[in-house]
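Regression test case RT-17, inverse folding.

Input:
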C-alpha cells in the first residue's frame, strides 16, 4: 500500500510539473505574439518602487517609523498619537500600491483578452480598458488594503498562531479573488460584485483544485533558484577565492537584472494565464496558443 501510494504521488507530481511547463509554454507563445505586454508589469514594478520611496521618506523623516518600533517593544504601552498617523500612512501605502498593481494588471489582462479573442492589442488598448475601470480598480484596492491591514494585525498580534491563521486567510483570499482582475477588465461590475463573481466562476468550474495548478509561479521559481545556485553562488565563490571585488559586484548585478527579467516574464505570463482561465470559465473557450486539454486539467474538479 505504501509503495502504491508513493508511486501515485510520484505520478501526480510529475503530471503537475508537466502541466505547469505546458501552461508556461502556451502563455509564452501568446507573449511572443505580443511582446509589448511586458510593458505593463514593467510599469507596475517602476510604479511600486516610486510609491515605496514616496511613502518611506515621510515615514523616516517624521520619525513615525522609529516611534512605532519603540512603542511596539513596550508591552501594553501603545502610543495612540504615534500609531494612528502611522496606521493611516500605512493604509494609504497599501491602497496606492495595490492600485498601481491592479491598474497595470487590468491593462495587461484586458490586452491579453483581446489577443485570445483573435485581436491584435496595443499598449493603448490595455490602458484604455484600465482607464475605463479606474473607479472600480480604486475600490478594489481599498478592499484589498483593508484585508491586508487586518491580516497584518492578526499576524503581528497573534504570535505564531496568528501568523499561521493570517497565512491561511491570505491564501484563501488569493484563491477567492483570482479572477477579479479579468472581471474588472471586462465586466461592468463594482469591486464587491467582482469578488462575488470571481468566487462564483471558480466554483462553477474547478472547485478547490486550481491551487495545485499555479504552475507558472512554480516554473519561474525554479528558474530563479537556478539563477541563484547555478550562476550567482558560483560567481560569488570565484570572486571570493580570487579576492576580486569586480567579479563579486558583477555577480550581484547579474542576479538583480536576472530576477527583474524573470519577474517581468512571470507577471506577464500569469496575466495571460488569468485571462485564459477567465475566458474558459465564462464561455468554455480559450483562444491563443492554449491547449484545451491542458486548461481543462487546470479546471479539474476535486474528486470525492
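Golden output:
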Amino acid at each position: 500500500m505504501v509503495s502504491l501510494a508513493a508511486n501515485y504521488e510520484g505520478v501526480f507530481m510529475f503530471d503537475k510539473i508537466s502541466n505547469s511547463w505546458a501552461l508556461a509554454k502556451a502563455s509564452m507563445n501568446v507573449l511572443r505574439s505580443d511582446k509589448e505586454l511586458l510593458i505593463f508589469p514593467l510599469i507596475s514594478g517602476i510604479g511600486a518602487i516610486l510609491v515605496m520611496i514616496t511613502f518611506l521618506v515621510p515615514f523616516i523623516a517624521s520619525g513615525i517609523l522609529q516611534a512605532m518600533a519603540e512603542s511596539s517593544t513596550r508591552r501594553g504601552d501603545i502610543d495612540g498619537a504615534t500609531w494612528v498617523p502611522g496606521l493611516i500612512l500605512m493604509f494609504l501605502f497599501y491602497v496606492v500600491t495595490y492600485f498601481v498593481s491592479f491598474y497595470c494588471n487590468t491593462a495587461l489582462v484586458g490586452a491579453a483578452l483581446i489577443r485570445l479573442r483573435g485581436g491584435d492589442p496595443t499598449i493603448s488598448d490595455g490602458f484604455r480598458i484600465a482607464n475605463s475601470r479606474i473607479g472600480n480598480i480604486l475600490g478594489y484596492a481599498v478592499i484589498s488594503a483593508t484585508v491586508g491591514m487586518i491580516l497584518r494585525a492578526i499576524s503581528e498580534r497573534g504570535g505564531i498562531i496568528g501568523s499561521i491563521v493570517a497565512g491561511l486567510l491570505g491564501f484563501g483570499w488569493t484563491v477567492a479573488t483570482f479572477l477579479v482582475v479579468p472581471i474588472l477588465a471586462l465586466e461592468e461590475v463594482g469591486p464587491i460584485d467582482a469578488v462575488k463573481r470571481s468566487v462564483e466562476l471558480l466554483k462553477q468550474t474547478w472547485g478547490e483544485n486550481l491551487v495545485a495548478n499555479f504552475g507558472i509561479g512554480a516554473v519561474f521559481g525554479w528558474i530563479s533558484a537556478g539563477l541563484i545556485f547555478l550562476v550567482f553562488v558560483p560567481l560569488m565563490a570565484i570572486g571570493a577565492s580570487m579576492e576580486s571585488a569586480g567579479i563579486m559586484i558583477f555577480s550581484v548585478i547579474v542576479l538583480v537584472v536576472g530576477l527583474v527579467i524573470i519577474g517581468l516574464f512571470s507577471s506577464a505570463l500569469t496575466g495571460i494565464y488569468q485571462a485564459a482561465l477567465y475566458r474558459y470559465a465564462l464561455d468554455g473557450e480559450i483562444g491563443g496558443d492554449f491547449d484545451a486539454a491542458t486548461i481543462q486539467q487546470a479546471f479539474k474538479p476535486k474528486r470525492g
